[in-house]
Amino acid sequence: MSLRPVGVVGEVSTPTSVDVKASNPLPTGTYAYLRFRVRDPASGSESVREVVGLVGSTMYRSLVPVVTSPEVGSFESFASSLAPLKHESSMRVLIIADITGGKAEAPRYPPPPETPVYLATVEHLRPIYAYNPPTSVRLGYLVG
Prior knowledge:
Helices cover 11% and strands 39% of the residues. With 144 residues, the protein is mostly beta strands. A 6-stranded antiparallel barrel has the order 1-2-5-4-3-6.
């Protein structure tokens, strides 16, 4: 299955949160998947990490200043003057798990800038939400 990027990691990245740049925003609550290389400074070895995150906030940003002019007489001409404006979407993705090797762990490495961001699939979410008694942690009880 071929994944298609929906954005890239922007300027700010931590192990638990990344800023994502895209042409169109993803809805909040959407799961995202990132795959990136890291180098261990102690050993010098390189490995590939896979993480899953959740879009926590999203917005559009104009890349050029929006200037209104008093000469604009009608809404139609005003709207047509704004049509060619360039914009980008900025999203904050909260990284919830490192799923490298099919096992969910706490994320430890920040994804590098310009890392592609993809929509997470069911296969990416399975290590996080699958019920496995030996490795699951009981969080409470359902009361109904």
